[in-house]
């Protein structure tokens, strides 16, 4: 991929980290950490940060690196490029929808994907890099790519939520469960910021990411790695199906408030009550999301049948 295209994509990812509150004003951006997060070398990350500094989102301090500027929120809209990343996002959604609806096989070659979606090699690499980060694609040893199992049906979606209703409340009752002040404070900051400013303006994908992050961070406090590994895996499996569903932003407001209520209970030491609240929260999310998922699945398969 040409560095400028990759750098623009990373610049947009960093911008979303700022707007979502994951990167706060004055925070130091560490090149290697970002490179590891995005699965790239440090060079395109540095180029992306140079780009964002020239546009006013970041500030470069001599011999210290890049920091989020105090006036960052006012320049966010100027940072987003209207030609590169959004076109890539549309192609990404086409690929994701084809995998969800079984229009493409699990193992593919880059040549097959380039021809099917009329993409350049650099565009395809960008899309596959994102799919890899989000956990539903991997490069095969030697040649080609493999798409990994995801929740493709409403039944699978519901089964995932019922699994979560078992493990997430139970994790809080584990003997080794301990409050982590850093996790509590960071999640409170993210959820509060979403309520204050972000729900109406953030992309749906970032809202879904922040919601999943809340649950994955809280389950870490059980100090049982198998709880966390299991939750991360099932969250990845349901992510594509949620991306293709319509995000109800009013429901996201309720979810944020419930997240904050769970944090309040944990901070007061009412762990059993927090466990019950988590189960109610997940049950409510399942009841609200299931009809939306069923509707999307029905429409998608109707469209597929018409095309046949």
Tell me about this structure.
This is GntR family transcriptional regulator. InterPro entries: GntR_C (IPR011711), TF_FadR/GntR_C (IPR008920), Tscrpt_reg_HTH_GntR (IPR000524), WH-like_DNA-bd_sf (IPR036388), WH_DNA-bd_sf (IPR036390). Pfam families: FCD, GntR. It comes from Shinella yambaruensis. Keywords: DNA-binding, Transcription, Transcription regulation. The chain has 308 residues and is mainly alpha-helical. The chain has helices at 3-19, 31-38, 42-54, 76-79, 85-100, 110-117, 121-133, 154-172, 181-198, 204-220, 225-243, 249-267, 271-307, and strands spanning 28-29, 58-61, 65-68, 107-108, 137-139, 145-147. It has a three-stranded antiparallel sheet. β5 and β6 form a beta hairpin. The longest helix has 37 residues, at 271-307. It starts with a helix and ends with a helix.
- Unreliable stretches: 75-88, 291-297
Shape: globular
Which value, in Å, is the CA radius of gyration?
Answer: 20 Å
Report the mean per-residue pLDDT as an integer. Answer: 82
Provide the spatial order of strands within the biggest beta sheet. 1-3-2
| Number of strand segments | 6
Fraction of residues in H or I helices: 55-70%
SSE ordering: HEHHEEHHEHHEEHHHHHH
Instruction: Label the structural class.
Output: mainly alpha
Tally of individual helices: 13
Strand content: 5-15%
Question: Major sheet: size, sense and barrel closure?
Answer: 3 strands, antiparallel
Span between N and C termini?
A: 35 Å
């Amino acid at each position: 991929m040409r560095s400028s295209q990759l750098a623009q994509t990373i610049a947009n990812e960093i911008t979303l980290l700022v707007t979502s509150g994951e990167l706060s004003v004055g925070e130091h951006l560490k090149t290697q950490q970002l490179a590891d997060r995005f699965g790239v070398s440090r060079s395109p990350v540095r180029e992306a940060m140079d780009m964002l500094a020239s546009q006013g989102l970041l500030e470069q301090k001599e011999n210290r690196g890049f920091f989020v500027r105090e006036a960052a929120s006012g320049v966010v809209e100027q940072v987003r490029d209207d030609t590169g990343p959004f076109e890539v996002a549309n192609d990404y959604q086409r690929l994701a929808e084809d995998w969800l609806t079984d229009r493409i096989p699990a193992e593919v070659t880059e040549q097959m994907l380039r021809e099917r979606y009329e993409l350049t090699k650099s565009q395809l690499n960008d899309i596959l890099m994102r799919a890899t980060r989000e956990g539903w694609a991997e490069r095969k040893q030697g040649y080609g790519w493999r798409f990994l199992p995801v929740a493709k049906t409403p039944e699978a979606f519901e089964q995932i939520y019922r699994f979560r209703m078992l493990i997430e409340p139970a994790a809080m009752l584990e003997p080794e469960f301990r409050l982590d002040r850093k996790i509590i404070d960071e999640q409170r900051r993210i959820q509060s910021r979403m309520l204050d400013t972000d729900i109406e303006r953030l992309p749906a994908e970032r809202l879904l990411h922040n919601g999943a992050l809340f649950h994955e961070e809280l389950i870490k406090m059980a100090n049982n790695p198998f709880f966390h590994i299991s939750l991360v895996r099932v969250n990845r499996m349901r992510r594509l199906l949620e991306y293709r569903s319509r995000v109800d932003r009013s429901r996201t407001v309720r979810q944020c408030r419930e997240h904050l209520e769970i944090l309040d209970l944990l901070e007061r030491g009412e762990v059993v009550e927090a466990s019950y609240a988590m189960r109610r929260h997940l049950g409510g999310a399942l009841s609200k999301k299931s009809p939306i998922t069923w509707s999307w699945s029905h429409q998608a398969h109707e469209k597929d049948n018409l095309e046949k």
